[in-house]
Amino acid sequence: MKSEKLLRSRNNQRRDSPSLSSWVQMHRRTALQSWQRLLKTPASSFATIFVIAVGLLLPALLYGVSSNLSSVLDNLNGSAQISLFMDRGSTASELRLVREDLLFDDAISNVELISSEQALEEFSAATGLSEISQQLSDNPLPATLVVTPMDADPQSVATLAARLGATPHVELVQVDSQWIQRLTAVSRLVAVSGQILTIVIVLGLFFIVGNTIRLAIENRRDEIRVVKLVGGTDAFAARPFLYAGMYYGLGGGMLATMLQFAVVIGFNSALQDLLQLYESNFHLQGFGFTSIAALVLGGGAIGWLGALLASFRQIAAIDP
Amino acid sequence: MIKFDNVSKRYAGGHEALSAISFEISKGEMAFITGRSGAGKSSLLKLILAMERASTGAVFVDGVNINRLSRRQIAQHRRKIGAVFQDHQLLFDRSVFDNVALPLEICGYRPQDARRRVRAALDKVGLLRKERLYPEMLSGGEQQRVGIARAVVNRPSIILADEPTGNLDPDLSTDVMNVFQQFRDVGVSLLVASHDISLISKLNCRTITLEAGKITEDYSAGGGS
Ligand SMILES: Nc1ncnc2c1ncn2[C@@H]1O[C@H](COP(=O)(O)OP(=O)(O)OP(=O)(O)O)[C@@H](O)[C@H]1O
Ligand SMILES: [Mg+2]
């Protein structure tokens, strides 16, 4: 009996006063109205979205390049090698002996012998200059011992290389990881500049969204006045503009994703020919689900926050 | 319900629009404010709506000093008041229906509940058939009635009306007054600014007369002042 009464009073309440579902409905309606308003001025809405997209695209590309670089580096780091170019005069058995000695070294995991004949063959195959090499009476290439260190970090590779300089019959020591180090430095530079650029661009996007929203508020001053006169809070008056800002940001994020795909596809096809020379199957990784989500959601958040920052003071200043 | 305690209002230009105003309107009372143009009628109503602040003195609504309200509380305060503005204050990019629905939307009514109330309010002012039109398609008097419908749609406890019959013919004016009296009869306090002396005299309500910002007469129908 009592609970029935309670139920009935709760039903009454739901019928006549604000409730959660009405709150949701109100948001849905505001969201729809803001959307329709954007569609009413397609050109200027698109201009804003486009600017946001380009802004988001720049750091996204830098981030993509730097993460591609670091994944390449991860693969390469395990393969730091030291090439020992041997005296031209050393015989095959001498070379074998040196190799076996080196294999006992604790700091070395493997040693591969490339004879001067093998080196020449590889060279002709890689360059297609087999005719020239056939015409050479003398093989200009030295035999090489390719040493794979146990420890791939640049410091210990360098120490090992210095030590190997004293090995008999070795004419020249070349550390193949030097370019890896340079690449690491470059990738770090790309990453850092990407972060700085991201901060600058996010600030710029706040400004762009804020400016667009400020104009929209200025155009609808009278409406905001009336809303306040009949009891609308600042938050209520700001809500359509926050939705608009969010739409700009989401739209910008989506457009940036598409532009990014276009860039990646274009870049890869241009890269293809170049990379074939190196027999590398490296290609710029497409950007995965997380990066799409980051762009779209990040864009939406930037738009919303930019609108919030721009609208709050301005709407509060409209005093009926 | 509404209490003015020695209120003066001086505008930025230095003009004193209201001086030393004191009066009180009780729950379920309907009162007129008359006076010539520029006497301060609109200024007085704006003080109650917190559109302007009293320079000295205090305005109380429901025992609360309006001057002390925060921004948020002012919004809540205005929701209790149905206001008809001298310049209508309609939204021209929304239909008649949506204009009247605005106070309900702000209070978070579900659309289906709001619809019922908006229709009832439009019916009271005889505009039910024009709910889909936009304000610019309406005559001045029709716009005024949209404003009246919007003022009463949320069943406010106070109704403030600034020249609500300024653009209406005598018959419509009488209708509007009947609507107001229905609200008075259910306990709503009403304060109506008007120069329409003939209409006021017919109704035999309390009438406060302003002259250059001062109350010169507070005539009460039931005798006394
Ligand atoms: N915002 C303002 N700034 C400066 N002076 C104002 C302002 N609003 C009104 N006034 C002045 O205050 C006085 C009273 O104005 P108010 O609008 O209250 O008169 P009213 O009685 O409503 O007149 P009407 O019947 O013409 O509507 C007028 O002299 C007017 O010039
Ligand atoms: Mg006036």
List the helices and strands and how they pair.
The complex is a heterodimer of chains A (320) and B (225).
Chain A: H1 2-16, H2 20-40, H3 42-77, E1 82-86, H4 92-103, E2 108-114, H5 116-127, H6 130-135, E3 144-149, H7 154-164, E4 170-175, H8 178-219, H9 221-229, H10 234-276, H11 289-317
Chain B: E1 2-10, E2 16-25, E3 30-34, H1 41-48, E4 56-61, E5 64-65, H2 71-79, E6 81-84, H3 96-107, H4 111-124, H5 140-152, E7 158-162, H6 170-185, E8 189-193, H7 197-203, E9 206-211, E10 214-219
Parallel strand pairs in B: 3-8, 3-9, 6-7, 7-8
Antiparallel strand pairs in B: 1-2, 1-4, 4-5, 9-10
Adenosine-5'-triphosphate binds at residues 11, 13, 15, 17, 35, 37-43, 86 of chain B.
- Rg of chain A, rounded, reads 33 Å
Shape of chain B: globular
Number of helices of chain A: 11
Main sheet strand line-up of chain B: 6-7-8-3-9-10
Q: Radius of gyration of chain B over alpha carbons?
A: 17 Å
Strand content of chain A: 5-15%
Number of domains of chain A: 2
Number of alpha- plus pi-helical segments of chain B: 7
Mean pLDDT of chain B: 91
